[in-house]
Amino acid sequence: MTGAGAVAEDERESQQEILEQRSAAIIAGIEAIDPDHVMHLASSTLKIVLSHFIDGPGARRGRRVFAMPREEEGVAIAAGLELAGARPVLIFQDNGIGNLLTSLLTLCQPYHLPLLAIVSRRGGLGEYNSLIHTISERAEALLDAADVRWFQLDARTPVSRWSTEIERAWAFARTTHRPVFVLVNLMGS
Amino acid sequence: MTVVSLGRAEVLRFIDAAVPDSPIVLSLGGIAREMLAVAGRKGNHFVSLDAMGQTVSVALGLALGLEKRGSTGKVLAIEGDGSLLMGLSALSTVGHLKPGLLVYVLDNGVYLATGGQPTASADIDFVAVAIACSWQGAREVRTVEELAAATDWALQTEGPILIRVRIGTAQLPVRYFLADPAILAEDFRRWLRSSMHARDSRQCS
To answer: Among A68, A111, A113, which would you mutate to test the B interface (most chain B Cβ atoms within 10 Å of its Cβ)?
Structure first.
């Protein structure tokens, strides 16, 4: 292959490599936390991470992994789990942030219940969906307006640091008794 | 023939007396306020102040978490028809995971706390929905005798169980409940720790 076709092929390989490296770092970070409950929602960019927990090595005995029909439902289940002393982690896309705000701001925030959410970024460079940016570009603004603490992992943070940062976010949620979101960019930008 | 509906306060008083030592998640509005009026502040009651639609999900998380810690008892949720309809997808998650959960749906057909606007519950068969979502069992009750029988059955049956309680729209004159939610959560966790500790001590002796 030569010319534009070869460049496009190289870009695809590069994107795939980034996806795999960052997914592995996220998996390592979550596994270091050792959650006993992992709740997830459908996400093409998170497919490697989700596969690890749904039917890969992360689907281990003693850990419940299940889909939440809506993000707000996952927040409420996590609130109950936290009350019971469990270790839940939520994994979903940033276009679901709008769904969960009321649940988050009427349960976890005011009741001082820690919660860690791993939230994949959509709608940026490399996006293939023509409209998802309409909500995804506003993820940070929505969380700021809701006074939800968040951290971002993207090209500015070496991938070698990602797993440690996820662990630190878990600890920070517990130290400060509130939800903490880690926004992860798996699309290369 | 005149049919006298069950009153919400009467049902809440019954549930509190029938299940005094189990964790109970109370839905917002009149359910929480009237339970406080008839039973007072109870350590085993987790009061939801505003998270409409999430009562069953909170109870589900609680049940899963307590099962993880070795609890074999049931977690209860007392939900209203309006709030349940807001979070109806929770029934599918509960049916899928099958926790030890007993959900009472106090169904008066209206959003009573906000003036009595109608809900869609008159056309919804909650019992059939629960069964279709793979719950272990579900019943509908209209009298105190039926409520007592259904509760006895539910407490002896593996969960999840749903009991739809048809109630009227009478309300107790109650005050707003203005507690700090962070304190409510900590009080509830303290009760849970104490309850689990007592259970562990009994098992060791």
So the answer is: A111
**CA pair distance B106, B121, nearest whole angstrom:** 11
Verify whether the Cβ–Cβ distance A107 to B64 is below 8 Å: no
Strand (E) positions, B16-135? Answer: 24-26, 45-47, 75-80, 101-107, 110-111, 117-118
pLDDT in tens, A55-104: 999 999 999 999 999 999 999 999 999 999 999 999 999 999 999 999 99
Q: What is the pLDDT of residue B3?
A: 59
Domain limits of chain A?
Answer: 10-184
Phi-psi region of A65 (alpha: psi -120 to 50; beta: other; left: phi over 0): beta
Facing residue for B96 by CB, picked from A66, A82, A110: A66
Q: Cβ contact (<8 Å) for B54 and A73?
A: yes
CB contact under 8 Å between A86 and B65, yes or no, is yes
Is residue B134 less than 8 Å (CB to CB) from chain A? no
**Minimal-distance CA residue of chain A relative to B89:** A69
Neighbours of A33 (CB within 10 A): 18
> Which pTM was predicted?
0.95
Considering CB atoms only, which of A70, A83, A107 is closest to B189?
A83
| Tally of CB atoms within 10 A around B98 | 14
Secondary structure (H, E, C), A114-143: CEEEEEECCCCCCCCCCCCHHHHCCHHHHH
Are B62 and A69 inside 8 Å of each other by CB? no
Average pLDDT, integer, range A146-157: 96
Is B64 in contact with A70 (Cβ distance < 8 A)? no
Tens digits of residue pLDDT in B18-59: 999 999 999 999 999 999 999 999 999 999 999 999 999 999
Phi and psi at B24, nearest 5°, equal -130, 125
Domains and CATH numbers, chain B: 8-204 (3.40.50.970)
Residue B152 burial by CB count (10 A; 0-12/13-18/19+): exposed, middle or buried? exposed
Supply the ipTM of this predicted assembly: 0.96
Is the Cβ of B118 closer than 8 Å to some Cβ of chain A? no
Domain A10-184 grouped into CATH 3.40.630.30: no
